[in-house]
Amino acid sequence: TLLIEKNKRLGKKLAGTGGGRCNVTNNGNLDELLTGIPGNGRFLYSVFSQFDNHDIINFFQDNGVTLKEEDHGRMFPTTDKSRTIINALENKIKELGGQIMTDTEVVSVKKIGDS
User: Fold this and answer.
1) Closest to 51 in 3D by CA, of 22, 30, 20
2) Cα–Cα separations (whole angstroms), residue 104 to 7, 14, 101, 107
3) In 3D, which of 67, 69, 83, 70 has the Cα closest to residue 9?
4) Which region, left, alpha or beta, applies to residue 91 given φ > 0 means left and ψ of -120 to 50 means alpha?
5) How far is 67 from 74, CA to CA, in rounded Å?
6) E strands within 1-115?
7) Could you tell me which of 52, 17, 50, 14 has the C-alpha nearest to residue 31?
8) Residues 66-88: pLDDT tens digits?
9) Half-sphere exposure of 24 (CA within 13 A, CB side)
10) I want to staple 26 with a disulfide (CB 3.0 to 4.6 A). Which of 58, 73, 92, 104 is the partner?
11) What is each CA distance from 73 to 2, 12, 49, 90, in whole angstroms?
């Protein structure tokens, strides 16, 4: 697997979430979580039936990120730094054998062969 990132560093958009602290998810039940999604979040039921907010919490905790719960169930890394989340994701990609290419823009994709 190859992750291609246009920016010089991974996680530019993640770095800005939660005031730079990265609001990872919410610790509430699924209905509470979907209520906080702008518009009609009901379309996410099928996605969250496969991997929900509690799976996200477990993923980060299993990968060395301690999370804390704040008002309205919002979950943040205890470091209060989005870089903690970005580093955990980057480390997991590398651990699983993935490659990361930054500062590279994909301008087109072309299929070669029948596979």
Assistant:
1) 30
2) 7, 18, 7, 9
3) 83
4) alpha
5) 10
6) 2-4, 25-26, 67-69, 74-77, 99-101
7) 52
8) 999 998 889 999 999 999 999 99
9) 31
10) 73
11) 34, 24, 20, 26
Rounded to 5°, the CA angle 27-11-70 comes to 25
Dig out the tokens for 10 from the structure: 């991974």
Q: Give percent of the chain with pLDDT exceeding 70.
A: 99
Instruction: For residues 29 and 45, give the distance between their C-alpha atoms in angstroms, rounded to a whole number.
Output: 12
Both tokens of residue 13?
Answer: 């958009």
Contact 65, 88 (CB under 8 A): yes
Report pTM.
Answer: 0.83
What is the distance between the alpha carbons of residues 2 and 21, in angstroms, rounded to a whole number?
A: 27
